[in-house]
ER membrane protein complex subunit 2
Amino acid sequence: MYNSSIVQITPSLASQISRQAPDILRNTTPVKYLDFLIANESSDLWFTYEGLILTCLRTGDEKSAHTSLQRLIDRFGADNERVMALAGLYKEAVTRDDGELYSILEEYDSILLRDPTNMLVSKRRITLLTSLGRLSDAISSLLKLLDSSPNDAEAWAELSDLYVAQGMYPQAIFALEELLLIHARLGEILYISGSIAKIGMEKVMTDSLKSFCRSIELCDNYLRGYYGLKIVTDRLLALQDQGNQSSEPGLSFSFQKLKDLNEVAVTKLSEIIRRSARNELGWQGYKMTELIAAKEILNPRSVSQSVTR
């Protein structure tokens, strides 16, 4: 449960990066000299060290991993939340027996006793519990973590995997449903499926609409959820305009309800675009590609004109 983008790289690429680690470390400036170069300090350097720790541990280059970790400790301090998690990861990787792993587990418990909000150490503790075969304890810890951070998609995915390992399939399905709500992927896939369906298109689109509605219930400012709400209500309104005003039996959204939901999506997308452009607190972090797509669906002519200028 730590930096999955690094963990998912291929073994051959990890090996290639690890072989370059000594050269990278020799060609970067140690922290003790950075006071003279602070204006040129880049966050990319620290992400490079973090990536080296993970890839070098995968390939057994403990020396380069330790050097990278020490650079981060020198820069941010041993009490930095992210550094603490990386230090724990390093210790786990270089231990030789379960006794040492249980000592690391006690260290995690001590850290969390002082600071229960340390999410990264909490996740490392859960991963360690899993590797020690203590799946029930890992599940309990994940549930506690999700109580304080219900929108953590990584945690829901891990919880689902643990439930499957325990044969608790209804609970695993529930965890995956929560994960899908966060990402609104279910709504997106249903929409794509409905777009190519020859029979029952309106039913599939209605299911897609329900999924998008659930996603924005969970996360009020979720751009992708409102974007999906807009495109699927556009499609359903078009279907009803084409002579399907009566709708298929069992569908729960009237023509007026679809119009209301469409207006909600337009209003919220406009607010997200406006407040994100102002860089308002709490309205940051949206991907530029998603903001452009939202602008285009609200005013396609304006966006196309701005692109061609």
In short: The chain has two domains: 4-136, 184-308. Residues 4-136 form a domain with the Serine Threonine Protein Phosphatase 5, Tetratricopeptide repeat fold (CATH 1.25.40). The radius of gyration is 24 Å.
